[in-house]
Structure formats: structure tokens, C-alpha cells
Amino acid sequence: AARGRGGSRTTKTHCPYCSLQCGMSVTAGDRPATLVPLDFPTNRGGLCSKGWSSVELLDHPERLLHPLVRAVPGDRTSPLVETTWDDALSRLVGAIRRTQRTHGRDAVGCFGGGSLTNEQAYQFGKFARVALRTSAIDYNGRFCMSSAAGAANRAFGLDRGMPFPLADIAEADVVVLVGSNPADTMPPAMQYFDAGRERGAGHIVVDPRRTATARNSALHLQPLPGTDLALANGLLHIALAEGLVDEEYVAARTTGFDEVRAGVAAYWPDRVERLTGVPVADQRRTVFALARAERAIVLTARGAEQHRSGTDTAQAWINLALALGLPGRPGSGWGTVTGQGNGQGGREHGQKADQLPGYRSLRDPAARAHVAAVWGIDPDDLPVPGKSAFEMLDALGTDGGVRTLLVLASNVAVSAPDARRVVSRLADLDFLAVSDFFLSETAELADVVLPSAMWAEEAGTMTNLEGRVIRRRRALDPPDGILDDLQLLAELAGRLGAGDRFSGDPETVFEELRRASAGGVADYAGISYDRIDAEDGVFWPCPDPAHPGTPRLFTERFATPDGRARFVRVEHVDAHERPDAEYPFVLTTGRVLAQYQSGTQTRRSRSLQLIAPTPRAELHPDLARELGIGQGDVVELATRRGRARFAAQVTDAIRPDVVFAPFHWGGGSSANALTDAAALDPVSRMPAFKVCAVAVTRVSGP
Ligand code: SF4
């Protein structure tokens, strides 16, 4: 940080929102704070409207500045009133003790988020297992990256969103983006695609909507939501038929191709066209473009991954990339575009139900022994893996389920699938505590609300979409009396009798995280705050201080025991819910440029509200005509779970049989009141956010 005139101070840090983690410097001291973008390797001076607006919220009038509790303890119909930290924490600790005494340790649960710093995510996992000794912990990344992570772990033995630096995109001759819309979700990343295009690269977008990214592509494939796996298998079928498979690479660097070769035989191009709606000619153009490119990249994201077959769908695209010899080749490969700011680090350090720090498995005796030694406990005292996010939420308040829940940095009342069901489960809890800096829809339901520090007021590390570990630096002090989540966990652990094991200082926690991760897949042992400062971030794995870090993975071998990548045969399965007479269309959900995730922050930003004030459902002009809907009319979307209202955006950018709704809003415009959680992915436990059956009716004029 540098001191300026009038006591102001300028600090280099990063945007609080998405996984690009754009560099910016924040000047604070004489509030309001201001920012300028930095020439950091991910954004190279660019920021999107979300990043530009981020400092607005630091002084927002709705900012929570005091702990809140129910006026009548235990009565959630009574108002939330301000109280002291001592009272709020006493109530929470009392609830934890009562619940564990009556119902057992696992009846207290923790729910985390992909926006927590690495240190906070690490400490939350440790808090659950050491201070609470509960198996009940998971986080909202289960709804985001888990399918891609499951596929990458299975195929490569390691999950790092992009196993290559972002800058490789600029060098690729073709990038196939499957269910990804960076032009809206992370606009500064488009400079890498644009640089490629200026060199003559032709990118291909696979998306049921003609998004801003698709409009700038050389080819746009518009499959029916939920059919991306069939498309990938079909492309591999064509590659085999046309002799485009890199047989030398397959023989030298992979296992299991014969099974896949046999499996994709059934994916004839015309059958794939019938399943997906993608013309045979476009299937062929895609395969030939990928196979003929010197450097080619396949990127999947939530559009392909948030399905009940999300892991297999990501695997199908990995199979295609492997067959064409891409992973590990310079400027080539498969990757997934991480969503949340610390979506990557959030899944590496132990806040996932089945994981310990260093991306270790809670089922592995050696991993348990290593982490237990760092934590100074007996490995037998470590709990077993608990339930995944939706399964934990769906069992709240039941026999054998969680009865007291602590939520950090997550707004499940808006972001969880079948959100109204989740809200009713939250109401069944004996006690709910939420840490947040605004009164989110989830915090509104709580017994205790704990006001937390905001991004610019806290320090720690984040791991971006490339696996680059960077520093979030404290640009200003939090308002008086506000704790950041590390301090909160240290204070709670102290009251639970484990305080000597929990520091509230980020660098102290990071030093412990380094030791806990040492020797694991996500090895941070060689990374220090000083190195991050000196090197614009360090890529993991980095096993010792002399190691340069690993921007590009798999160049020599994959992280599997035999060093080879694994093909896995995968088959198309129909979406759990298909259109019928009652619900005749397909609903898919996603993001818009000027909002972020559950909208707790961005819906409160005045400048972003000017850009995207209203939740809009997109539908095709043919469908609008059939249903008598005009531009801007209020429409009601209904599914078997619930109803929600949106303004109609009539656009020929969407398939006539598909309706799109953004998921940033709650209340009467909650897209997740509509989504289907009945069938989870068997590997990742991912719900089917991206496809369900919907009915559309016009309610009124604009
Ligand atoms: Fe922030 Fe992502 Fe926008 Fe960059 S692209 S400014 S990290 S929201």
C-alpha cells in the first residue's frame, strides 16, 4: 500500500467478483473509496461494469454494522434487532452446544462459499472438523464447479480449472467454448479471444442462446440444453470416421480409448442432429477446425456442467480433446471456466464434504494422518465425509439431518436449486446463523446475523481460474466492531474450547495451510505472501520455495498413478424432466452482464441497477407470437416446483423451444424457485440447474 495526500492510501488488490480476479488498485482513507484497473496478467488494464462498481458498496447504507438477533429468541417471526457481539455469539454457541448434546455432533452444520479467501475456506473446514467435530460441511461451489472437477479428477488425476495460463487462449487457432459466455460473465477475458481472432483464429461457441460471445464467434452451435454430451460424442464419432484422431498421442499418453471408440460408434451425425438440433455440417466443421488447428482449446462451463450428467458431459469433451491429442500440448488442451472469485481455491482447502486441505480425500488414511498431524489431533478424531450441499440442505431439521447451521458467504435462499423447498427446510432448523455484509434473503431467515468485513477490508489469498494464487490485500479498515470471517471463526473456536488452534491472522493461517497442503495435489508449500507480491501470483502446484510454480500442467505426464490420462466411456441420458403437455418448453438459467450470482451485492449497486434493473426472461419471437406475448410484457414461468415472474425479452437469439431466465433475483422473480433438484449427478452431486420443463403465460402488459 502507498500513502497519499490527506491520509489516503492506495493498495493493489483484486476485484471481489468473478474468477478472473482482475487486478485493481483501491484508494481509500477519505471515503468514498475509488479504484483504477491495473495491468495485471489476467485483465491487462480492463475491468467490467461489476468491477468498476465494486467500491460503491463499501459505504452502502444497507451495510450491516451490528450483529442482529431475534427480538424474541426462537421466534423467527419476531423482528431482527441489533445486539452486541457477545450476545450474538453466546446465542450461537449455546445453540451449538444444545444441538450437539441432544442430537449428536453431526447435527451442527457449516455451509461455505466460493468467495471466501483460501485462508477462510481452510479455516472453515478445520473449524467444522476440529472445533465442532462434525462431518456436516459443504459449500456453494457444489452448485458451480463440481462436475468439471469430478471429470478432471477422473481423467487427469487433478482438477485445476484451466491447466494452462489464460494467455494461451490468445495463441490458440481455435477455441471451442461449451456453455460459456465470457463476453457477459468476464468481459476483460475477451481480449485473449480477440487477440486470437486478429491473428485469424476462428472460435466456436456451443450455447442454446446466441450470446455476446456467440455473436463474435466464427461458428455458433445451438444445441438443446442437456444434449452437450451427445454432441461431444458425435464429434468424436466424426473424428474417428475421418481419421482425425491422434493415434500416436492416444497410444503414448492415455488409457481406455477402445471402450470410448466402441461407445461413440452409436453417435451417428444424423442421430446427433436429431438429439441436439446441431446440423451435421456444423458438427463436421467443428471437428475439422479442432483437428486441423496447430493449437486448439476446448473450454466447458456451467451450461454443459450443471446437469444430472454434468460430470459425464465434461468427460465427453475431455474425451474429444484427448482423442485429438490436445491436453498437455503447448497452447492446447481442455479446461473449465471457473465462476466464483475463489471457486478454485474454495474447493482445494477442505470446505467440501469429502475433502481435506491440499485437495486430499477425507477417505484416504494417509491424507487424514497428514492433516491431523498439522492440526495436532488424532486422525481417528477426524469425521467421515458428510452429505453434499443439496443433500445437506434438503435434510435440514430432520432426524439425522443438521439442526443448527452456520452459513458463511452464501445466499442459498436464492442460489440453491428448488429454492422454495430449501427455504422451507431452513425454516425447519432449530437455529440458523448467517455471516454476511448485507441482509441477504438467507440472512433474513436467520436467528443470528453476523456482520462481516467486505473484500477491500480483509486480507488473504485467492486462487483464480488459471490456478494462480494471488493476494487480496486490505485497502481500508472495516467499520468499527466488524469482524472478518477468520476473526469470527477464531472467536467462535475460543468459545467452544479450541481457541488455541485458530488464528485470526491471515498470514499465520496461510503458513499453516502451506504445511497442510504440502505433498497434496494442490500443493502450496512453496508459495508465500512475499513471492506472490514479487511474481504477480504463483501457480500451484509449487512444492518448495525454489520451485517456479506450474503455469502449464500435464506437459510430460498426467497426475494419475501411471501418468496417463483416462478416457471414460459416457452415454447421453435424457434430462430428468422433459417437456410435456402441461410444461411444454425447456427452461435454462444463467447470468447477465451487470449482475453477479445471487445478487446480494450487485442488486444493491446503483450503477449496476441502471444497467440491469429488471429480471428478464428471454423467449423467441415465434414462441412469443404463439403465446400472445409482447416485448416487455410480464410473463409467469411455471414448473413443477413453483412460479416466478419476469419481463419478457423477445429475441431471436434463443431457440424457439427454450426459455432463459437469469438467477440473480429472489422473491417473485426467483429462477431457482423453478429449477429441478430431484436428480443429482452421481459423481459430483450437481443438481440440474440448466434444464427443466416449463410453462409460460402472459400476465399483463409492460
Ligand atoms: Fe471483476 Fe470478473 Fe469483471 Fe474482472 S471480469 S472486473 S474479476 S467481475
From TrEMBL:
<dbReference type="GO" id="GO:0003954">
    <property type="term" value="F:NADH dehydrogenase activity"/>
</dbReference>
<protein>
    <submittedName>
        <fullName>Assimilatory nitrate reductase (NADH) alpha subunit apoprotein</fullName>
    </submittedName>
</protein>
<keyword id="KW-0004">4Fe-4S</keyword>
<keyword id="KW-0479">Metal-binding</keyword>
<dbReference type="GO" id="GO:0051539">
    <property type="term" value="F:4 iron, 4 sulfur cluster binding"/>
</dbReference>
<dbReference type="GO" id="GO:0022904">
    <property type="term" value="P:respiratory electron transport chain"/>
</dbReference>
<keyword id="KW-0408">Iron</keyword>
<keyword id="KW-0411">Iron-sulfur</keyword>
<feature type="domain" description="4Fe-4S Mo/W bis-MGD-type">
    <location>
        <begin position="8"/>
        <end position="60"/>
    </location>
</feature>
<dbReference type="GO" id="GO:0043546">
    <property type="term" value="F:molybdopterin cofactor binding"/>
</dbReference>
<dbReference type="GO" id="GO:0016020">
    <property type="term" value="C:membrane"/>
</dbReference>
<dbReference type="GO" id="GO:0046872">
    <property type="term" value="F:metal ion binding"/>
</dbReference>
